[in-house]
């Protein structure tokens, strides 16, 4: 398929001041040289612990943040440095849904007005037409069209996420950044929301960037998955390949930590414990950023930053010792 979104050598640095009177300046390299693409109709999962930069990538793509370096190309057009006005038509084509649907919904607005707001902003519909679009959107996400007159607090977490999805769909986007959309939901509800997103993708031909902190959450919805660690991609490949044959030590550790529901049917994988906390992104380890927690680290790992390399067809890994340990 055609590539819808391309991110080339993207960097997003934040300058932080601390110390007495803010004299010390430190640079937080939240996203440090990340390249990826997403094909039309595809879902790319992006996974990593908090502070790995996955959310910053989403926000930089949609231009809530300005990129420090690198390029963002949407449907063949370089949008990296477009002004807010130039960005307006693209805002319609790309939308974002958030982790906490309650915080992202205005509690004093009715559900109808929440969903209708993007219609107003982009001057898409008014009056009766607007009302009908809102009702149709509510039905699309599995809610009752009479819910339009109610307020967010009257709904459960899963229903509120559906409202957030309906709002994102109002402008008929092609691309949706799903920023941890199921992380705050009960496990029993997570699958329902994932199924809804999949159905909508099939019906409307949507393309997703699906961000999560847990590999088990992106497994079923993603065609390909990228694993991030401290601002960099550690591994990127098809979902099937990643779960079958993880090659990066970090991915191996993450996968071994997924709880296995039935020990009788599951294959017996050795559980790898990830020791220690993620180092501060303000002061990441030299060389390979994962080396302080890596079971396999050698001298070279502290000396040189491992590049993301294609080690098998479509399977990209950033590890000096990938051939030795696999
Ligand atoms: Fe571990 Fe070294 Fe590979 Fe980094 S480069 S993941 S420290 S073996």
From TrEMBL:
Gene3D superfamilies: P-loop containing nucleotide triphosphate hydrolases (3.40.50.300). Keywords: ATP-binding, Nucleotide-binding, Transport. Transmembrane segments: none annotated. It holds the Pfam family ABC_tran. Residues 5-255 form the ABC transporter domain. InterPro entries: AAA+_ATPase (IPR003593), ABC_transp_ATP-bind (IPR050319), ABC_transporter-like_ATP-bd (IPR003439), ABC_transporter-like_CS (IPR017871), Oligopep_ABC_C (IPR013563), P-loop_NTPase (IPR027417). One of its GO terms (biological process) is peptide transport. GO terms for molecular function: ATP binding; ATP hydrolysis activity. Belongs to the ABC transporter superfamily. This is Dipeptide ABC transporter ATP-binding protein. It comes from Thermanaerosceptrum fracticalcis.
């Amino acid at each position: 398929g055609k590539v819808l979104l391309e991110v080339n050598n993207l960097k997003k640095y934040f300058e932080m001041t601390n110390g007495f009177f803010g004299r010390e300046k430190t640079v937080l390299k939240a996203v440090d040289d990340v390249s990826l693409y997403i094909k039309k109709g595809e879902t790319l999962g992006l996974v990593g612990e908090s502070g790995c930069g996955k959310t910053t990538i989403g926000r930089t793509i949609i231009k809530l943040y300005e990129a420090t370096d690198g390029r963002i190309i949407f449907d063949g057009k370089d949008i990296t440095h477009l002004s807010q006005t130039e960005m307006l038509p693209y805002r319609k084509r790309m939308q974002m849904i958030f982790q906490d649907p309650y915080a992202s919904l205005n509690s004093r607005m009715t559900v109808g007005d929440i969903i209708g707001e993007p219609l107003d902003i982009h001057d898409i519909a008014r009056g009766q037409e607007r009302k009908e679009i809102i009702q149709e959107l509510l039905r699309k996400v599995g809610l009752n069209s009479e819910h339009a007159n109610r307020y967010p607090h009257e709904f459960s977490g899963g229903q509120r996420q559906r409202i957030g999805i309906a709002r994102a769909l109002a402008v008929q986007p092609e691309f949706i950044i799903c920023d941890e959309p199921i992380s705050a939901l009960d496990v029993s509800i997570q699958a329902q929301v994932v199924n809804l997103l999949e159905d909508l993708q099939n019906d409307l031909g949507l393309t997703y960037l699906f961000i999560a902190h847990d590999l088990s959450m992106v497994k079923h919805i993603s065609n390909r998955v990228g694993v991030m660690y401290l601002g960099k991609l550690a591994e990127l490949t098809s979902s099937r390949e990643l779960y079958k044959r993880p090659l990066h030590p970090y991915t191996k550790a993450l996968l071994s930590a997924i709880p296995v529901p039935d020990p009788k049917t599951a294959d017996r994988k050795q559980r790898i414990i990830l020791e220690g906390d993620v180092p501060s992104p303000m002061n990441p380890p030299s060389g390979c950023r994962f080396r302080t927690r890596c079971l396999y680290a050698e001298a070279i790992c502290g000396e040189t930053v491992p590049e993301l390399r294609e080690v098998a067809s479509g399977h990209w890994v950033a590890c000096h010792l990938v051939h030795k340990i696999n």
